[in-house]
Amino acid sequence: MRSWFARGVGAWLWLAPSLAFAAEPASPTLSLRWSDPSGLAATSADEFASRLSERLGRTAFDPAQSERALAVTWQGSPEQCRIQLSLVKSGEVQGTRQLESPSGDCPSLVPALLTVAALLLEAQRAEPEPVDESAPAPAPAAAPPAPATPVPPISAESPSILVSLGGALSSGFAPKLELGPAAALVWAPYPQLRLGAEGAILLRHQYGAGPGFELSHDRVGLLACGMPLHQSFALGVCASAALHLFTSQGISLPHPEQHHESSISVGANLRAEWQLTEHLWWVGHAGADVNARPLYFYYSTAPGGQLTLFRQRSVSPMLLLGLTLALP
Predict the structure, then answer these.
(1) Residue 281: beta bridge partners?
(2) 176 contact partners, CB below 8 Å, separation of at least 6
(3) CA separation, residue 240 to residues 234, 287, 289 (Å)
(4) Angstrom distance (rounded) from CA 194 to CA 160
(5) Which of 5, 118, 135, 281 is the most exposed place for a label (fewest CB within 10 A)?
(6) How much helix, strand and coil, in percent to the nearest 5, is found in the chain?
(7) Which of 43, 301, 271, 263 is nearest to 173 (CA)?
(8) CA distance 1 to 268
């Protein structure tokens, strides 16, 4: 996000050719059109005009001027404030500039607004010199190169819905590291809050050479996150509750049986969101599930005893990473 200083420098370069003609104080050539539909303005139209007049050393605006105007429009939200300045002539927009605050608040934009507006008004004072028809016409100068089209900045507004597809890693629910596809659907009613659901299908794997067992693991969970940092890089902490479904089957046994078990866990993890484009994000979770009822897997020996194959851990680390589509 570009700072007001960078935008002020850009506006100065844009207006420098016109400022070369400004010399003597003149009457105002523009009227002011002030728009604040959401009540975001950190100053009023009268206060803005007064402060601008003090900076210029003359009256900034002429209310009677109807052909030319400087339109100032406050946009965005209290957390992500923007100002759009437009030069209007005979109802047509001649040029537009937009200011954004690096800290996301409206009051910090007022100094930049005054600076850019002052440059615009000084440029409008320039009048072309009369052409002496008796003098020979000068040779036409080479046309200046067309200005480069500015690349719009990535919007840092918080999304409303995040749909993630990616992968998950888990350790502790099986003898070895588990891996599988994962998905999540998250709703952001406020920039500082995330509510949603996530799921993972951890692939079936065989453990042991015989006797041993095959184990598959599915996980479905709910999460709630607080996001104190919620700009183009967001960071927060989540609490989760999950249901784990396990399917196991013995191998190299005389009479193998398939068993279905389930357990519940609660957990906490760190959530990070990184904006790549306007609607595309990376989202990652790193944390751990606390198993309410760890399971253990065994097989029965011929004399009627039991031989334990694996016992789950009480705390199991979990990692989820997904490419995410942000919906407004």
Answers:
(1) 275, 324
(2) 205, 207
(3) 18, 10, 8
(4) 9
(5) 135
(6) 15, 50, 35
(7) 263
(8) 32
Tens-place pLDDT, residues 24-65: 445 667 788 888 888 878 788 888 888 888 887 888 788 887
List the beta bridge partners of residue 151.
none
For residues 273 and 261, give the distance between their C-alpha atoms in angstroms, rounded to a whole number: 34
Question: Is 153 strand, coil or helix?
Answer: coil
Region of 118 (left: φ > 0; alpha: ψ -120 to 50; beta: rest) is alpha
Classify residue 11 by its DSSP letter.
Answer: H
Domain 161-327, second-level architecture? Beta Barrel (2.40)
What are the tokens at 66?
């109807």
CA dihedral 132, 133, 138, 144 (to 10 degrees): 80
User: Domain residues of the chain, as ranges?
Assistant: 4-124, 161-327
Residue among 164, 40, 161 nearest 110 (CA): 40
Residue count (the chain): 328
65-99 pLDDT per residue, tens? 777 888 888 887 777 788 888 888 877 887 788 88
Does the pTM surpass 0.70? The reply is no
Non-local (6+) Cβ contacts of 249 within 8 A are 213, 214, 256, 257, 258, 259
Place of tokens 């597809």: 165
